[in-house]
Amino acid sequence: MTDLAIEASGLRKSYKDKVVLDGIDLKVRAGTVFSLLGPNGAGKTTTVNVLTTLLTADGGTVRVAGHDVASEAKAVRAAIGVTGQFAAVDELLTGRENLQLMVDLKRFPTAEGKRIVAELLDRFDLTESAGKPAATYSGGMRRKLDLAMTLVGSPRIIFLDEPTTGLDPRSRRTMWQIIRGLVADGVTIFLTTQYLEEADQLADQIAVLDQGRLVAEGTPDELKRQIPGTHVRLRFATAAQLDVAAEILPGATRDDEALTLRVPSDGGTASLRALLDLLDEHAVAAESFSVHTPDLDDVFLALTGHTTEVVAK
Ligand SMILES: Nc1ncnc2c1ncn2[C@@H]1O[C@H](COP(=O)(O)OP(=O)(O)O)[C@@H](O)[C@H]1O
Ligand SMILES: [Mg+2]
To answer: One GO biological process from the UniProt record (predicted)?
Structure first.
């Protein structure tokens, strides 16, 4: 199958008696975004390290860009770019010097190297800060610089390990745009994330990793069909009020113990207003009202019956 950028089968990895990867199979088509979704400690970084030749698996096979990671590590490394979970940026160097270092490592001729550095600084909106030490950069700028460094040499397969964890919403959106740009250029992206929304926004295919096993796989839509959608949660003061509300909202799910009602909703202002009006008309007042968008916890609860809490390390 030449159209697979990454193919792993039966991957296993343990640290002493702790099993971290317990038989993982992955197929990533070239030119697509594959997202490995999982909470802290699920084994995402371990998977990335194995796929990128940084770590040797205890069992299983991996082919990346058609090369075996065990016997052709050099060829694999030549085909990929990796942005680790913890920035590879040297804080004492300026943005430009960090990029120049990558260009030198990859042995580009001087003139071409200069052109690449200037181009990447421009593309990531870092030209203005290029002369300042990376230590002075914001988290978002540092991640951008890190990704720019990964792009030196134009790898066709890129691994991004939690590229937006800890970023503010605006920097996260910038990062998403950059990733979309790479995909538009035909690059294959292997992305790990703890955010369902991020996987939903970017991925063609999502695999959910839980304690070293894949517990679900599919397109974002296939996955979301298995979990509760956006809904409004209403909590009432009395069982009588809950009864009335449940009657006027037949599509809702009730929880008699918590005195709550879960009403499917798109979360938009129009439908929220309509819902509140309806309650008003019937003279029922909710004690609390919240809009709930599904997150990783909902995915895990729906798929595994437990939340994302990490088992003690
Ligand atoms: N070098 C190591 N030695 C021992 N345990 C490790 C090592 N690296 C990772 N682990 C453990 O393996 C599990 C998965 O880690 P990791 O792959 O970093 O998860 P994630 O990236 O999803 O947060 C964790 O329980 C972690 O403590
Ligand atoms: Mg990690």
So the answer is: daunorubicin transport
Fold of 231-292: Alpha-Beta Plaits (3.30.70)
Class of domain 4-89+137-224: alpha beta
Convert the pLDDT of each residue in 131-180 to its tens digit: 999 999 998 999 999 999 999 999 999 999 999 998 889 899 999 999 99
| Cα separation, 174 vs 27, whole angstroms | 28
**Is residue 45 within 6 Å of ligand 1 at its C-beta?**
yes
- Spatial separation of the C-alpha atoms in residues 154 and 147, rounded to whole Å: 11
Pair of tokens at residue 274: 């309509």
Tell me the best of 21, 37, 45, 46 to mutate to test the pocket of ligand 1, counting ligand atoms within 8 Å of each CB and taking the most: 46
The verdict on the CB of residue 313 being under 6 Å from ligand 1 is yes
Show the tokens assigned to 1.
């199958």
